[in-house]
């Protein structure tokens, strides 16, 4: 369990010493808590402003969190996904948008591992770690695929995607498209700031306002065949591990949902202790002695702890697959996806319950715009509509009743 309650002074960037890279889990979690404390100081105000989060991404870079999965020899943390997930959760407790940005970045940072050749993996991870690249991705599967023209030594991408999380704050963007006249999909990593990439600056949603998730138009973006992820002599050799991007991103979702829920619950508890007034007919001098308050916070915390524990367990199960990327079987992958679906469903329900339920313990005075307690619910509500949670429960049910494992798709 983590907590940042009962702090005497807010944390500022200037007060932090990030001159060295953490070397173990406690050090990385402490670094993530530092970032959380900086973010939560003015999270409500930044949510209202909705400005492009250049400073927030700089914070992630300066803290080193963007390289937690990077090779140690290039200045990265050399850590594994279970710890990275906990770091995402911690950052999201301070600001859900920035937790999402970090989570998506880490997935796309890992994209070379998922589909690249050994040479591509080494090159991408070295450059991305040394330069602290921040990754975005234009891979929304609900839109038409980007088209790719094969022009001999180069592939040329064109098309439009409705969503491109990270957009203007990214250094590089992951593209995915289909070569014209074929069913061949090709991933590639390209510089985000070039003439052929135009971000729509049209992300205007009720929640996750700082994720820069608006549209992007791709026009004649050229990529050498050598940069086509996973291709050798223009041929791609598939393996089951290629499909692990969905379980990874779904666990990323789980972590920032739980982080937002924790941020809401701890911020609300602090407000209830310090500012909520007892009900005038309740017979108590302090709000913290009200039986309904004790029941509320006890119930919500118990539910959060339970899903956090499940999320940690599923993350450890996934790490077993990461350690044997070439040996993972379709059945092993399918069983893991069922577990991911289960925790995604529970995290969705619990995060929505907590972020709306805290108001029962806050009182009417806590609904002011300045306090911004509504941002927690708006953030969870916005992103939990990414893909219907009913289909996650269906995956679990089909395995329980019919012993059916989900087939790999863009959402399972």
From TrEMBL:
Domain Acyl-CoA dehydrogenase/oxidase N-terminal: 35-121
InterPro entries from the UniProt entry: Acyl-CoA_DH_C (IPR013107), Acyl-CoA_Oxase/DH_mid-dom_sf (IPR046373), AcylCo_DH-like_C (IPR036250), AcylCoA_DH/ox_N (IPR013786), AcylCoA_DH/ox_N_sf (IPR037069), AcylCoA_DH/oxidase_NM_dom_sf (IPR009100)
Keywords in alphabetical order: Oxidoreductase
A Pfam family recorded for this sequence: Acyl-CoA_dh_N
Presence of keyword Oxidoreductase: yes
Superkingdom per UniProt: Bacteria
Acyl-CoA dehydrogenase C-terminal domain ranges (all copies): 252-386
Region (Disordered): 1-20
Protein name per UniProt: Acyl-CoA dehydrogenase family protein
Source organism per UniProt: Pseudonocardia alni subsp. carboxydivorans
